[in-house]
Design a protein that fits this description.
seven-stranded parallel sheet, six-stranded parallel sheet, alpha/beta, about 1250 residues
Length: about 1250
């Protein structure tokens, strides 16, 4: 039975056949869990099966986000092709699908980086690059950048370039240029994500240049500030209009008439200001209008409607906050002062931009000189090939791009929302306006830190049309993953908070999640049900909420309370043997692997959580994607390496001495420190002797050996000696989360190997490299040691969970504040907003915010919060059956009864009467909990505990979309949680039996279990047979069978090596031995000869040669890097010339169609090789055909051999099976017959025909 597709999925699969057009570009907006990958694969299969409009898999280009996704995509397509072949009786279609399956390995299904690499390899001769250039690893590229930048800065200081002294004064400190270096690198890395980096950098300078000559109010930044200010004033006006209506009501709070009057007067003053300086003057006097308090006695309050009182107070309070903020607004700075600031800023921003461009050029030159590339080079070099020179500002396709446009009939881009500007330009240049297929979900665009640009998706999302539009949008909204209540709760929240102004996208019915999975006849103990927000109120044990809001979410003690709650909830669900639903609709008992705990960041939390969960009897593992250098085992190793390099450093020395490597406690460490003056290392020998401390004496011996080792050998040898002598790998493996820790220390060894393999040496330099990675936030991923089959609870970041699903999800730490640290930098960067630079007082070395900085900060803060909404969306859509959200709060009111920030949010949100919350309320959020609170407070049932907590009596509006979703909000006493000292539930008798290695209990196993333990696989022979086989192996197997049958006398194995003496070589036609190899003992293998001669036949142009012209062409192959000098000297000019002069060579030269080094793969009847295989079982055969050329509509197949033989019969006997296989493969691959097969022997200088 085939898959039943939804109408929208069907459209995405068959378009443009459901339209009036022949071709269309499609944007498939695929919501979470909508089966986008399945749709993409089905579209490809449908296109390949289309006999009316034939399309080859080689005419498709499929771009994926990761290599793993590309491999999965290729595997899915291969499986789908195989199934399609089995499901049809149409011989023509079967042959076509088989050919596509054979071509699949050469199809362009890859990451964009891999595609760029292919383009560069194919057209490298059009670029000014070293033909032998390779892609450098992260280590050498980071060190190369450091060297280039250090040299550039030195030159700048010497020659006074780029306003270097002002830049250093601004960005650097007294110790180093690290601050300036970091700014240059951040600017460089950002620019490299754009199609024209230098052009963008210079364009970002233009507003600063213009600002020196025009009024600040007329600048881009001034117009933005004025517009925003007018929006605030309009919001104040709207609130005052509602406050007036309330006061007109007989039961309105007339006592507060003066508050209304003062705010109305403030509004009048602000509205009257028409110029920048007038507005500034008005803002300075706002304190006059906001002094009144909302005071009212209990008896007075009885005369008024409490709902109207609460609403008036809320509206007036918001106005008061806005008016108070105006006192420090940018308008309070005079325009003349702002103009002076612009003039002072320009030399600094100009110097920084020009210095970054200079670094770009110097770094590019150094890479060219060393024959090395990084990943950004792949994109930009590919772009250089695809853009017509001179059109960089408005890229137009080059001849290469036009060739690729003709090659690819459709370009498919998966996870399109994660594309950047360079990648978008590349895709546009190799495609047409009507043959692109984009698939993704802008609501899951969460990779801005990788320079992804979600606005590319949004632009198309907002402009693409319907069925008959050339550029068409199709929405896949049906979610087949999550239970309908999880989807309804997600919709309920995002209908309110995801708006165009607050989150770049309006979450409407078109964007909402539609249930595609309906749970029917669920058992009573099914785990699903309400979506739950579980909060711990920790206000009894902490300071008042209003006093500690800034630190909320980062309190280790309260984090442990939340963790304790989660552990208890997981144990409760598991012990109750709750049921979860399988994807096929059946139910089963819940297992540990069904739980996942997601957090925005795991740093400082994940390892502790795993330790606590294991102590509680819950198997758990954490795979943190960041925090590698902060991991305890890595910090200790780096501290040890640091003191091996320089033992006079007391801090790392103390860390090592206090660790398990030495084992000094705090008192012993203090005694060592107080034993004299000098460093700990200088005091250690005498102290150790005097105290007869064997640990220190042994450590001193190790240190001396390690220091010697570090000078004489590499970092890898040093690390391995540490691992072995200290048993360090097993030491960390015994710690909590030991599998990951063990893998981490081995990963550091691998990183050191990569560092040294790149040509770098020295412990100091390695430590400097690691430090640069850490400082630039280029953290290494922590080791992954868990497979999907492992029955453990998984702890991961929300980013890591993207694309995954789990029956039960805990979204933990929802109270943790968003990371806005980047917004505090002196330099802010945004693609559209440009560069925002702070001002600077050089006399006191203090920076201050400026108009450009405020502007870019606002744009970036809005973008960051929009992305945080999308990250929250990803988190909520990971759960299949049950979703918990957990966190802690520090009360809804402080000790004086005043509402906390979160209490104010509940009050302000609950009174809103529109479906979408106002932008100013949405953007107040600094945590996921803020958004949950403001959304759930408006739920009739679920929000009641929140409204009760603040004693809310204002108006309510519950008529919202998906209001029927089942939400449960519970608030617990946080003081009842936090004891993570779990004891294993095992009695002492059992423990003693285990210690004595006795059986804990004696149980007679059921027969089914006995049978399973004794099970023997019935197809054991198949386990020894490979599913993939090479032509050489297949040939050998056929020869074995013939030998067994007695049809041949001996097994003709191909000769692996041929020893050639120096004299033989000098006199042979096979080459000229280089002097460096002319030693008596030196021999060369037949494999080396064969490889070189095959490569020559692959790369030599197929033209008529003289002996001299052939020699010249071979020498040219050395010049372009195909061969080294030594390899060239091993090539036989004479043998190659004799081939091209032969009849076969001339036929090859004159052929119109020629294939060289043609890879193939085909399915092969298994019983032809192994008699014991089942009927219909296939093997996968792979090989490479040396040369095939077309002659009179038929193929001529040629295989080159360098075997030392005396006759052609020997070669036929040795290689006939191989040639027959090549012939069969070529015919099946192309559908064209093979009329002749030749073995050309470079030893015999003869073409032997194989019948």
């Amino acid at each position: 039975m085939g898959v039943k597709w939804t109408p929208e999925q069907e459209s995405a699969i068959i378009a443009p056949k459901d339209s009036s057009l022949d071709n269309q570009t499609l944007l498939v907006a695929a919501a979470a869990g909508s089966g986008k990958t399945a749709v993409l694969v089905e579209r490809i299969i449908t296109r390949l099966k289309d006999m009316d409009n034939p399309l080859s898999v080689q005419e498709l280009m499929v771009v994926t986000f990761t290599k793993a996704a590309a491999q999965e995509m290729s595997a899915r397509i291969g499986l789908a092709l195989a199934k399609a072949m089995e499901s049809t009786d149409d011989a023509t279609l079967q042959a076509r699908l088989e050919r596509q399956l054979n071509l699949l390995p050469s199809a362009h299904i890859s990451t964009l980086h891999s595609f760029c690499q292919w383009v560069i390899r194919s057209y490298f001769y059009k670029l000014d690059i070293n033909p032998t250039a390779r892609i450098g690893n992260e280590a050498e590229m980071a060190l190369l950048q450091q060297e280039v930048l250090a040299d550039l800065l030195t030159k700048s200081y010497e020659e006074g370039l780029y306003n270097i002294y002002e830049l250093a004064d601004f960005f650097s400190d007294d110790k180093s240029d690290a601050g300036l270096t970091a700014k240059i690198m951040s600017l460089y890395n950002y620019a490299m994500s754009l199609a024209n980096p230098d052009g963008w950098l210079r364009k970002a300078l233009e507003p600063y240049k213009e600002a020196m000559n025009i009024n600040p109010s007329d600048t881009l930044w001034g117009e933005y500030m004025w517009s925003n200010h007018m929006d605030v004033i309009n919001r104040i006006r709207e609130r005052l209009e509602r406050m007036e209506q309330i006061l007109l009501d007989p039961t309105g709070p007339h006592k507060w008439q003066n508050i209304y009057d003062n705010q109305l007067a403030a509004l009048g003053m602000l509205s009257a200001a028409q110029t920048w300086d007038d507005m500034g003057e008005a803002c300075k006097h706002m304190d006059t209008f906001i002094k009144d308090q909302f005071r009212m006695g209990s008896k007075e309050a009885q005369a008024y409607d409490p709902i109207l009182v609460a609403e008036f107070k809320s509206l007036g309070g918001q106005n008061k906050d806005d008016l108070k903020a105006m006192q420090t607004a940018i308008f309070t700075v005079l325009e003349a002062t702002l103009q002076d600031q612009f003039k002072a800023q320009y030399p600094i921003i100009e110097g920084l931009v020009e210095l970054t461009i200079a670094f770009h050029q110097a770094y590019r030159d150094m890479k060219q000189e060393q024959g090395i590339m990084d990943f950004s080079d792949l994109e930009h070099l590919c772009l250089a090939l695809l853009v017509e020179p001179g059109t960089e500002d408005d890229p137009q396709p080059s001849e290469v791009a036009k060739e690729l446009q003709d090659t690819f009939k459709e370009i498919m881009v998966d996870e399109y929302q994660d594309t950047n500007g360079v990648q978008e330009t590349i895709i546009n240049l190799i495609s047409r306006v009507d043959n692109r297929f984009y698939v993704g979900d802008v609501k899951q665009a969460i990779y801005s830190f990788r320079m992804a640009d979600s606005s590319l998706f949004m632009e198309k999302y907002n402009t693409y049309g319907g069925n008959d539009a050339v550029e068409r949008r199709i929405d896949l909204a049906k979610n087949f993953r999550s239970h309908e209540n999880i989807l309804a709760a997600t919709n309920f929240l995002f209908y309110q908070i995801m708006t165009e102004d607050a989150a770049e996208l309006n979450y409407t019915e078109a964007e909402s999640l539609i249930p595609g999975r309906i749970v029917e006849d669920a058992p009573e103990d099914w785990v699903g049900g309400d979506v739950e927000l579980q909060l711990l109120d920790v206000s009894k044990d902490t300071l008042g909420a209003s006093e500690s809001d800034e630190d909320e979410g980062d309190d280790p003690e309260n984090n442990e309370r939340e963790l304790d709650f989660i552990i208890q909830k997981i144990k409760e669900i598991h012990a109750a043997k709750k049921q979860v639903q399988n994807p096929d609709g059946t139910f089963r008992q819940i297992e540990w692997r069904d739980f996942a705990i997601l957090r925005r960041s795991l740093a400082g939390w994940g390892t502790r959580a795993v330790e606590a969960m294991r102590q509680a009897g819950i198997p758990a593992v954490v795979n943190e994607r960041d925090g590698y250098f902060e991991a305890q085992e890595i910090q200790l190793l780096l501290a040890l390496l640091s003191i091996i390099d320089n033992p006079e450093q007391d801090l790392p020395m103390a860390a090592v001495l206090h660790s398990g490597l030495v084992g000094l406690d705090a008192n012993e460490l203090g005694a060592l420190r107080l034993s004299g003056e000098g460093s700990l290392w200088s005091l250690m020998p005498s102290y150790a002797e005097e105290a007869q401390d064997e640990r220190l004496l042994a450590f001193i011996g190790h240190m001396e050996r390690w220091r010697t080792l570090s000078r004489r050998h590499g970092v890898t040898d040093l690390l391995w000696d540490i691992y072995e002598s200290q048993d360090y790998v097993n030491y960390v493996g015994a710690m909590p989360n030991g599998l990951v820790r063990r893998a981490n220390v081995l990963a550091l060894y691998d990183r050191a190997k990569g560092y040294e393999a790149s040509g770098f040496r020295g412990l100091f330099r390695f430590l400097r490299f690691v430090e640069s990675l850490r400082d630039s936030n280029q953290d290494m991923p922590l080791a992954n040691v868990v497979s999907e089959a492992d029955n453990v609870v998984r702890l991961m970041t929300i980013h890591k969970s993207k694309g995954l699903e789990f029956p039960v999800v805990f979204l933990s730490g929802v109270q943790k504040r968003f990371n806005m640290m980047d917004l505090r930098s002196e330099l802010l960067i945004d693609k559209n907003a440009g560069l925002g630079l702070k001002g600077y007082f050089p006399d006191i070395r203090v920076s201050f915010p400026t108009m450009p900085w405020f502007y870019v900060k606002d744009v970036k803060e809005a973008a960051l919060k929009a992305e945080e909404q999308r990250i929250l969306y990803v988190a909520l859509t990971r759960a299949r059956d049950k979703l918990f959200m957990t966190g802690f709060i520090k009360g809804f009111k402080n000790s004086k009864g005043v509402l906390s920030t979160i209490g104010e949010l509940i009050k302000n949100a609950a009174s809103v009467e529109t479906q979408q919350l106002p932008t100013d309320i949405i953007t107040q959020a600094n945590t996921y909990l803020d958004w949950m609170i403001m959304g759930f407070a408006r739920h009739l049932d679920g929000g009641n505990p929140l409204r009760v907590a603040i004693e809310y009596e204002g108006p309510t509006y519950f008529d919202l979309p998906d209001k029927q979703c089942r939400l449960k909000v519970e608030i617990h006493d946080g003081s009842l949680y936090g004891d993570l000292d779990y004891k294993a539930d095992i009695d002492e008798t059992t423990i003693n039996k285990v210690r004595e290695l006795k059986a804990v209990n004696s149980v007679e196993l059921p027969q089914e279990i006995v049978d399973r333990f004794n099970y023997s696989y019935p197809y054991n022979d198949a386990t020894r047979r490979t599913a993939k086989i090479s032509v050489s192996e297949l040939k050998r197997r056929f020869q074995e069978r013939e030998l067994e049958a007695g049809t041949i006398d001996t097994l003709n194995e191909p000769i692996a090596t041929v020893e050639v003496s120096a004299d033989d070589l000098a006199n042979s036609v096979f080459g000229r031995k280089p002097q460096a190899l002319q030693s008596e003992d030196d021999v060369l293998t037949g494999a080396q000869w064969g490889t070189l001669m095959h490569e020559a036949m692959q790369w030599l142009p197929l033209v008529t040669y003289t002996q001299a012209s052939l020699t010249k062409e071979l020498d040219a192959l050395v010049a372009n890097g195909t061969f080294t000098e030594e390899e060239r000297n091993l090539l036989s000019d004479t043998s190659l010339y004799k081939f091209f002069s032969s009849d076969l060579g001339k036929r090859l030269i004159n052929a119109k169609r020629i294939e060289r080094e043609l890879p193939f793969s085909m399915l092969f009847e298994g019983k032809r090789v192994y008699d014991t295989l089942e009927d219909g079982e296939n093997l996968f055969l792979q090989g490479i055909i040396d040369t095939a050329f077309e002659e009179d509509g038929e193929w001529v197949l040629v295989d080159y051999k360098t075997d030392r033989v005396t006759s052609g019969e020997e070669l036929i006997k040795r290689y006939k099976i191989q040639m027959d296989l090549y012939k069969e493969a070529l015919q099946r691959l192309t559908g064209m017959p093979v009329k002749a097969c030749y073995i050309y022997s470079f030893r015999l200088h003869d073409a032997i025909i194989v019948d």
